[in-house]
Model the fold of this input.
Amino acid sequence: MNPKGKVITIDIEDKTAETRKLDIAQKLITFVIGSSTDPKIVSEITERVKGKKAIVILDSNHTKDHVLKEMENYWGLVNVGSYLIVQDSDINGHPVFKHHGPGPMEAIDAFLPSHPNFQIDAERERLIFTTNPRGYLKRIQ
Done:
């Protein structure tokens, strides 16, 4: 763990009033309000992490199109050896919420063929349960 590491969180609604009061939040978290796929937000995040190590965790709108757009917007921020983590890839029958419709798992399936610099790291799923099956994408080049 990097003790100098920071967290950037993006959300369309600001529900962080209590969290923002915490010392640790003031020191380590940057709160960005807006859509994670808004070009202005993507640009702002890209500038903030330029030249730094980054892990990207996606956990917002769980439709295939939205998740795939996030993946396309943020994969370049992930350093070799680090991760793009897609949350909740278990929905749409993988194995839960069978009638959800195409979601994170389908976005992963669409993303990987055109991004050979990422591979699924099944070792991250070594525990009995995960809500992110096939969702730990390690940048290998």
In short: The beta strands are 7-11, 29-33, 56-58, 83-86, 118-120, 136-139.
